[in-house]
Amino acid sequence: MVDKSDKDVSYWLPKPKSRIDMQFHVRGVPFTLERDIIVEKSAKIVEILNEQSDDSIYQFLRNIPAHPKTFELVARFCHGFELQMSCENVLPLACLAFYLGMTESHSPNNLLSKAVTFFEQRILPSWNETVKAFLTTEDIIQQAVDTGLVGECIESLVCKAVNDPYLLGEPLVNFVNDELSEDDEFHHKPSARRKLFVSEWQSEDLTILPLSLYELTIHSMNQHAVPPRFVAASLLKYAKKWVFCSAKGDKKMSVCKTNHQREVMEAVERLLPHQKGLFPCTILFEMLRFAIHLEANVGCRNGLELRIGKQLDQATASDLLIPSRDYAKEMHYDIECVKRIIKHFYRDYNSNMEGLTAVARLIEEFLIEVASDRDLEISAFVSLVEMSSAASMGTDRSSDGIYRAIDIYLDKHSYLTESEKEEVCRGLDYHRMSAETCEHAAKNQRLPLRIVVQVLFLVQLQLRDAITREMQGPDNRLTQDEVEKDERELALNDGVQKSEMEKMSNKVMELEKECHMMRKEIEEGCIHMVKKEKTSMWREMKRKFGCINKMNNCNCQVKKKKVHPKLWP
Questions:
Q1: DSSP-H helix ranges across 327-399
Q2: What are the angstrom distances between the C-alpha of 11 and each of 3, 21, 55, 203?
Q3: Which InterPro entries match (predicted)?
Q4: Which pLDDT tens digit goes with each residue over 11-34?
């Protein structure tokens, strides 16, 4: 009935022979009304006509805060037509009637009382009708708040949600909340009647509401004892509809849409109850990824990190692979975010050993995942290694997972110097490695030489301990004197072996030093001034390192071959 054309939409009104017409526009739509009829119903227009000029009434009508469709219904009512009220128009009609002063004190059976009566008797008793009517206040939110209609809608929805929280939707059934009491679970268990008639009637989803109205409703529900897990279910549906689903496959979103998604994400986190376990870790991580992608505020991201930290023992290694964007817009893993989440877990954790073990295993698996990232800096990797080592100290886990991550990192970063490799291995606890891992490390050419020597020494100690345990077996065939004698011999042998290991380590360092000096002299062309004993020393070094090249003179080309010294003949 209403369009933006210049056609007067008041053509249907009766045309008496003598009348005073008022011609004006409401949001660009022309109207022509008889002044006496509108004055009969509107106390506000009477007030303006008595106190001000005719120009003021035209300006008042032009600035009227209503949709042309709503004003057309008001005009029909003033001319005696019967209105068909519904959930789509009753609240806009009530707001406009209030604005125009169409009260009972001014005229009997006026529009405001009729709209309010219809709203109270036909709309508020029904959940679906209330949601649909509430939706129509989006464009007139301030008027609806001033008249109290918003408060009435929210109060009605909250009361119905308290009595039947399933109106908000089904909570997550595949996730067990530790803090949910048996009474709460029994009280809100869906009835057989609900299951029987679910196909015949479906509650109107609150996700159809705009963010401003939805936020007011959920905030009120959080304050009026609506079960948190049902509030969380509604929030999750709202996030999926307005953030998750709308962002899929849409790489080039408009700025307006991105801003709206950011506002929704921040509101969902802000409204989510603080009770632990309302969402699985996987969903919380998904929300965090969207918050980072949409550049949500710090409070939103920190809130999600804190919630994840409280239940980190339920996460998986893939959950921790959180992307971050640097200034070059290149995708990397957000290591700092993961470290903050882990700190939140240990700061607030007060459960059993199973959770600590699960998180220790989780950190190791995450460490193995990111070790292959060629862009991962040494400092970030070392900090994760130290954190993983500290996490496993209170558990019975070995350091095999940490060693595997270090091995992968050294393999993917083969350009590291010897000192950098030693820095990478700094957090590795050799004493907590299994025998198989120690054996692998002793033969691992990617490890720095100093680390290999330490592992070999540890293998010798483990061998001695194994022999000692074997001799102290349950058969106890040896006498006490023989055992003590063997222990003294083992201790002596251990001292000898330790001394030999130290001598060998020192000898390797001396050989490296001599090798460096000789290479420097060769490069400077001073081979003729090398003393005879130096030459013999160089030949001895070639023999020990397995070199087969010969030097003829200072100008010859020396072919270098990377070999590893044999630590034991």
A1: 335-348, 353-371, 378-393
A2: 13, 13, 24, 41
A3: NPH3/RPT2-like (IPR043454), NPH3_dom (IPR027356), SKP1/BTB/POZ_sf (IPR011333)
A4: 445 554 445 677 777 887 888 888
